[in-house]
Amino acid sequence: MRRKYFGTDGIRGRVGGSLVNADFAVRLGAAVGGILKKHGFVDGSQILIGRDTRASSMPLMEGLAIGLIERGFVCMDLGVIPTPGVALNTLHGNAVLGIALTASHNPASDNGFKFFMESGCKVEDAWELEVEALLDSPLKVSSSQIEIRTTSGVESYCEFLLGHFRPGMLKGLELAIDTANGATCETTPHVLRELGAEIIQLGHTPDGININDGVGSEYPEMMAQLVSAGQAQLGLAHDGDGDRLVVCDESGSVIDGDEVLGMIALSWMREGRLVQNTLVGTVQCNAGLEASLKRAGGRLIRTSVGDRSVTRRMFQDGLNFGGEPSGHFVLRDYLATGDGLLAALQLLEIRQRTGISLFELRKQITLFPQFQYNFQVQEKLPLEELPDFQLGMDAILQELGDNGRVLVRYSGTEPKIRLLAEARTRALAERALNSLAELTRANLNTIDNDESK
Predict the structure, then answer these.
(1) Which positions ≥6 away from 427 have C-beta within 8 Å?
(2) Where residue 375 sits, what CATH number does that domain have?
(3) What is the pLDDT of residues 369-410, one digit of tens each?
(4) I need a surface site. Which of 73, 166, 176, 308 has the fewest CB within 10 A?
(5) pTM metric for this prediction
């Protein structure tokens, strides 16, 4: 069933648009409260709400609270906290639901809503569809008077992470940290310093409108330059809500997300920690990652795009590590959702314990040449209903044969179509991407001014 409001990761959109405004937040809160009541949760049950640093979050939280309180729930404000911190506090805090107000790596002009169930997992598709069925129902609110109680979630989140790693583990390590002017500005430096690291921090002066503005995981260049200049040994960058990680090695080179997946998976295989020697990735994972795992006796399972799809498959098969090349890494032994800082700590622990640099560790994974391009689109026309597009795809796939693959999909959170081409040689991958781009322009109403991110 096609969803009207929810995308691949909650609800996200332009602030003041049809999906992200205070009035919609009231309706959303009431619909969510209605579904929770339907599922048996009683009056007085607690709902935790956390947020990143966007100025637009406060009126959205107040709108949500009006709708939720109208349905009999108690709203607790966690304050500014990374999204995985919302998940953790929901799991351990006697709450029936956690909500993160964030648009992740998007600019401050956007905002949105992510939802976590009691288990700390993101909600399922069926739950979202139930909410959507109520969202357009007439809503009567008896009072606009709201009481949002405050509680601290940051301390318990930091203590949780520190409790899983050896004290002093990072002593003597100099790190360049880019926290995207977002939710991790306090938590990530605190945890890393507590473990002994020395920190140079970028993107740590949030003002409500500068989140992800030329900083963070989407813009790792400054972080990498500090490492290249010898001012730090490694670099770490998060997105606005802290569920992503981008890393640069000792040379200042940004490490591909597929390489991070491979480094952790191979290390866990050697330790006997990787359940069934299996990594869960997505359709965007590089075929070179799959080949590298296979050489070591492991395997890669692919899901659709989205860390929620990855986590669902992990639970389904009883697996404990997965993620996306975009920087979402799910370490289920600790948390049931992606956490950029947790992934960074795991990677640094491997480096410190083995004495092998990330520059050397990443050589274990040989990636195939891969190229991507995004188009903005006027409308997300169903590709399967475009005969000429399908014929063109068949021709591209026939030319590639067993030497490569292509992937075409719409973004779940933005009006974009994403193209990916991968092959054993650079020339073949580039040719396939160019053919895909021409095919897309010919069959869709595109705005050809995007970047391959």
Answers:
(1) none
(2) 3.30.310.50
(3) 989 999 999 889 999 999 999 999 999 999 998 888 899 998
(4) 166
(5) 0.89
